[in-house]
């Protein structure tokens, strides 16, 4: 029997025009986006169609979370039950909202504040990130430690799958690391900030005030943290979300935990399919779907309706 796990998109997956056909086709989706806009005090449909705005962290983050939550509302309306979820970085906020651990009313202003703090932390610094394919992880970790001892700012930011990690830091730090590892295949990423590195430690500390005012609840299903590699718990969720901003993500671990819990089918929610690729590389036996447009949503409903379970 099918058991569903959700994968929630993170920053970097945003695309101009994302969700337009969903917004035009499904009143349920449109209602979520409009409500999220009101809570965020932003015109999210306009942001989703403006390349300049969508390219800014403070606007991309609430837009992505709203889209994921809206798609989940469609899945719930179609009686597609969910047994667990993980999100990549920002995607954890969408997962916490859809699981009921965080309300949309409190979650959207929180994401707006997070995006603003992270954008401010980038400032005029020359940040850089690079994906390393088929890495020797121990060798990369050792090289980072050596460079850090020399005063360079570079570290592993994302453990995405056995076949991909991402490193981040200052431009000088990342360049030095890639020079030190010439035998490894690396791809520079078009990002504004070196997310999940110590460069965001002050932003994380500044985020504590916003988190302190939020009321977190026990959810309908577990959401596995990229940071602790365990399900979020109401008594420690604030500490975890602060740490998340400046510590590496462990998405591959979350995928394995979903598989170990009995999840048989993954649905990637939001624009793009990067998370499905990580799933294929990490838990290849699990079935995979993507929902970023109306056609994909209809495919999921046709394939899964009536088959999913919650336990």
From TrEMBL:
Domain Malonyl-CoA:ACP transacylase (MAT): 7-307
Pfam families, sorted: Acyl_transf_1
Enzymatic class: transferase
SMART domains (alphabetical): PKS_AT (SM00827)
Its EC number(s): 2.3.1.39
Recorded catalytic activity of this chain's protein: holo-[ACP] + malonyl-CoA = malonyl-[ACP] + CoA
SUPFAM superfamilies: FabD/lysophospholipase-like (SSF52151), Probable ACP-binding domain of malonyl-CoA ACP transacylase (SSF55048)
Alphabetized Gene3D superfamilies for the sequence: Malonyl-CoA ACP transacylase, ACP-binding (3.30.70.250), Malonyl-Coenzyme A Acyl Carrier Protein, domain 2 (3.40.366.10)
Domain of life according to the entry: Bacteria
InterPro entries, per the entry: Ac_transferase_dom_sf (IPR001227), Acyl_transferase_dom (IPR014043), Acyl_Trfase/lysoPLipase (IPR016035), Mal-CoA-ACP_Trans/PKS_FabD (IPR050858), Malonyl_CoA-ACP_transAc (IPR024925), Malonyl_transacylase_ACP-bd (IPR016036)
Keywords per UniProt: Acyltransferase, Transferase
Family named by the database record: Belongs to the fabD family.
Name this polypeptide is given: Malonyl CoA-acyl carrier protein transacylase
Lineage, highest ranks first: Bacteria, Bacillati, Bacillota, Bacilli, Lactobacillales
């Amino acid at each position: 029997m099918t058991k569903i796990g959700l994968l929630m998109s993170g920053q970097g997956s945003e695309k101009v025009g994302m969700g337009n056909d969903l917004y035009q086709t499904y009143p349920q989706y449109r209602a979520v986006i409009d409500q999220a806009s009101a809570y965020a005090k932003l015109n999210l449909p306009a942001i989703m169609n403006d390349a300049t705005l969508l390219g800014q962290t403070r606007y991309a983050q609430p837009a992505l979370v709203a889209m994921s939550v809206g798609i989940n509302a469609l899945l719930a309306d179609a009686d597609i039950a969910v047994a667990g979820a993980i999100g990549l970085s920002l995607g954890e906020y969408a997962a916490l909202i859809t699981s009921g651990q965080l309300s949309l009313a409190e979650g959207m202003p929180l994401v707006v504040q997070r995006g603003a703090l992270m954008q401010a932390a980038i400032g005029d610094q020359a940040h850089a990130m690079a994906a390393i394919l088929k890495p020797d992880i121990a060798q990369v970790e050792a090289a980072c430690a050596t460079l850090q001892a020399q005063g360079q700012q570079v570290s592993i930011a994302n453990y995405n799958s056995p076949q991909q990690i991402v490193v981040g830091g200052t431009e000088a730090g990342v360049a030095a690391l890639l020079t030190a590892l010439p035998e490894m295949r690396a791809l520079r990423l078009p990002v504004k900030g070196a997310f999940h590195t110590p460069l965001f430690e002050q932003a994380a500390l500044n985020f504590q005030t916003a988190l302190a005012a939020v009321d977190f609840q026990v959810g309908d299903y577990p959401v596995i943290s990229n940071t602790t590699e365990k399900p979020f718990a109401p008594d420690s969720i604030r500490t975890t979300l602060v740490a998340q901003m400046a510590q590496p993500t462990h998405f591959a671990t979350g995928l394995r935990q979903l598989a170990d819990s009995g999840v048989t089918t993954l649905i990637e929610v939001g624009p793009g399919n990067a998370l499905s690729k990580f799933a294929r590389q990490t838990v290849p036996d699990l079935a995979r779907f993507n929902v970023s447009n109306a056609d994909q949503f209809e495919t999921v409903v046709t394939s899964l309706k009536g088959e999913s379970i919650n336990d």
